[in-house]
Structure formats: C-alpha cells, structure tokens
C-alpha cells in the first residue's frame, strides 16, 4: 500500500511572502522613527533659538537708550549649539516706538524669527 507522503511546513512562496511583509513593516517603522527623531531635533533647535532671540530682545528692551535704526548681528551659544542672531531695528509711524526683529539662524538656515516694539521711557 502506497500512502501519499504528507508534508508539513511552509512552501518557499509562503516564506518569501512572509519575509516581504516583515521587510515592509520594518521599513515603515524605521521611517516613523526617523521622522520622530528629526522632529525632536527641530523642536530642540527652536527652543534654543528662542532663548537666543529673547535674550537679545530683552537686552535691547533693558538698554537705557533707544537702539539705533539699522541691522546688527550677534553670536549666541545655547545648549552647545552656535546660533547667529540678526537684529533689525526699524522706525514705526509713531516716533516714540521702534520695531525690533530678531532672526535666528544656525549658520546656514533660518530657525526662528521674533519681533517686538520698544518705546521711550
């Protein structure tokens, strides 16, 4: 009596399909992790740039004299990172006030911009 052989296990096609599904899932997970890491780094850069901009604007506000109209640039170190703060002072329609814009960059790209109005005391 010849009985047909009964095989157990998976065929090669089934294994390849399973490996393909696992590869796609791992790739998607890696992309999600990369996006989250990049977002966390960007948030860190924005926080540090905000500290730099606020420091320069507060220095300008606390100065005993009104700043001169024009542009200036200062370096800023925060959290081990180097930023450049470009201050732009512009007149307003009211001569008692000046508009001060602080643009923070990390050397190659702008990171943050803040503005304020400074008045005479």
Would you write up a description of this structure?
With 121 residues, this protein is of the alpha+beta class. The protein has one helix at 12-62, and strands at residues 70-78, 81-91, 97-105, 110-119. A four-stranded antiparallel sheet has the order 1-2-3-4, covered by helices on one side. A hairpin with a 4-residue loop joins strand 3 and strand 4 (110-119). The mean pLDDT is 91.
- Which series of helices and strands comes N to C? HEEEE
Topology, number of strands: 4
Largest sheet: 4 strands, antiparallel
Average pLDDT across residues?
A: 91
What is the topology, as strand order, of the major beta sheet?
Answer: 1-2-3-4
Helix content: 40-55%
What is the end-to-end distance? 110 Å
Name the overall outline: rod-shaped
Count, helices? 1
Structural class call reads alpha+beta
The Rg value, from CA coordinates, equals: 29 Å
Low-confidence stretches: none
What percent strand?
Answer: 25-35%
């Amino acid at each position: 009596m010849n009985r047909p052989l009964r095989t157990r296990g998976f065929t090669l096609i089934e294994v390849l399909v399973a490996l393909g599904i696992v590869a796609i899932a791992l790739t998607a997970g890696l992309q999600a992790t990369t996006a989250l890491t990049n977002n966390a780094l960007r948030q860190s850069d924005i926080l540090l740039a905000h500290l730099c901009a606020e420091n320069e604007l507060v220095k300008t506000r606390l100065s005993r004299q009104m700043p001169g109209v024009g542009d200036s640039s200062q370096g800023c170190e925060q959290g081990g990172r180097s930023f450049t703060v470009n201050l732009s002072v512009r007149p307003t329609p009211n001569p008692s006030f000046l508009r001060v814009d602080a643009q923070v960059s990390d050397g190659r790209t702008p990171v943050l911009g803040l503005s304020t109005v400074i008045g005479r005391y």
